[in-house]
Amino acid sequence: MPSETIKLYYDYKSPFTYLAMQPMYDVERAYRVELRFIPFEIDIKGSFGGTLDTRDERNWRKVRYLYLDARRYANACGLVIRGPQKIFDSRLSLMSGRWADRNGKFRPYSDRVFERFFKRKLDIEDGAALAAVMTEVGLDPAGFKRYALGDGPADLKAAAEEAERDGVFGVPTMIVAGEPFWGNDRVEWLVKKLDAMGLRR
Fold first, then answer.
1. Fewest beta carbons less than 10 Å away: which of 39, 123, 182, 196?
2. Which domains does the chain have, with CATH numbers?
3. In what order do the strands lie in the sheet with 173-176?
4. How many CA atoms lie within 13 A of 107 on its CB side?
């Protein structure tokens, strides 16, 4: 039985969250831990200089470098990451991830959302497109629609409040026994902590 819960804060529009998912699934298999997935919408405009039209050259250099780094990691993992062509509002998709998690389908659903989004084959603002992915993995799109109009926004708000208490400022952030690890490249440090805690299976 798992003896430690790892919080994993994620956003579907984050390439580095996508890169962290498989390594964290591997951690869950190798250690007596359970992943708890918590949505956290990253503020792209605030972090990278506003809208695409108003972003200055310095911020564009930052964005271009981050995607260069993301593609380096992706190539090593056999994944495809193409930079989105606009700044997406991921709130609906994050509610859909919460819905999938509630119904025991987080991984198959999220794997498809991440892969297709970063291949530019899925619009995460499009409810019908998300519903089609839900149908593929055996989720009820009508149930999700009721959730998105009902408890979904409050659930996202509660997740944001939990993130604030945890000091989260970006994704992916993994929290083990109160200690944060930010970024897909921090998984190996997280593993060292789990080894020190004696949690290897």
1. 196
2. 4-196 (3.40.30.10)
3. 33-39, 4-10, 173-176, 179-182
4. 10
